[in-house]
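Need residues for this backbone.
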């Protein structure tokens, strides 16, 4: 499900607000169904299982429940009978927030927020420097390569060396590999795609994943991140197949 469809569905469900949560059903590990009392008594389904990741509006009853989990039981206990007051998604972030105010003995309690990360399988963060010239197909090409960390190779602003770096002892030197795509130890972030799971893994071990270090040796933020990711078992790749460079310089690599 793409971001445009998700945004349209969120806007449709907004028209149900305020609505009453009538039932919570979890037919499998990756899906939650919420019944909204109102016109037509529709169901809202949140699925995190690829390739079905997304938000769905259904009129039929969900599949027969074959199990109940602590999560679904706790969720039902806290929100059934509550009022659906708001549902939002941040632009194209694909993180849906559902706000529900529970009711107990006629009193409105503090609201609960159900957050669903409907990211999918091929989510990531695309880095582009504001002074770089990149090819129009850069993002789609890097997505198709399907690597943990992959960036386009281009010359540094001083014209000496490129952004692909190989580690020798405790130093990082220019990687002169001329292949179209090759594994390396670090890549500059001027035109680079990092998978979401890599970002999550590094963030779990470091409060500041991108960090300029001076001890025990000087490392830029991009090299620091790549080094930390590799220590966790992730791979870094460099790509030579797209025109990339700096604004105002004739040092484009292709």
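Answer:
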């Amino acid at each position: 499900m793409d971001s445009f469809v998700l945004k349209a569905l969120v806007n449709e469900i907004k028209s149900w607000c305020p609505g009453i949560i009538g039932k919570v059903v979890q037919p499998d590990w990756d899906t939650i169904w919420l019944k909204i009392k109102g016109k037509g008594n529709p169901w809202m389904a949140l699925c995190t299982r690829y390739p079905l990741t997304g938000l769905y509006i259904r009129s039929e009853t969900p599949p027969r429940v074959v199990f109940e989990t602590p999560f679904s039981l706790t969720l039902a206990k806290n929100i059934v009978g509550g009022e659906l007051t708001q549902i939002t998604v941040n632009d194209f972030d694909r993180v849906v927030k559902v706000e529900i105010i529970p009711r107990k003995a006629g009193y409105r309690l503090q609201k609960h927020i159900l957050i669903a990360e409907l990211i999918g399988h091929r989510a990531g963060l695309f880095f582009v420097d504001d002074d770089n010239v990149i090819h129009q197909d850069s993002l789609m090409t890097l997505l198709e390569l399907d690597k943990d960390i992959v960036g386009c190779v281009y010359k540094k602003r001083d014209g000496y060396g490129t952004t692909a770096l190989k580690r020798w002892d405790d130093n990082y030197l220019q990687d002169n590999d001329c292949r179209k795509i090759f594994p390396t130890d670090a890549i500059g972030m001027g035109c680079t795609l990092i998978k979401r799971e890599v970002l999550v893994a590094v963030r779990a071990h470091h409060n500041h994943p991108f960090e300029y270090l001076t001890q025990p040796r000087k490392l830029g933020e991009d090299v620091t991140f790549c080094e930390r990711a590799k220590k966790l078992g992730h791979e870094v790749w460099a790509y030579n197949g797209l025109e990339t460079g700096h604004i105002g310089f004739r040092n484009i690599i292709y």
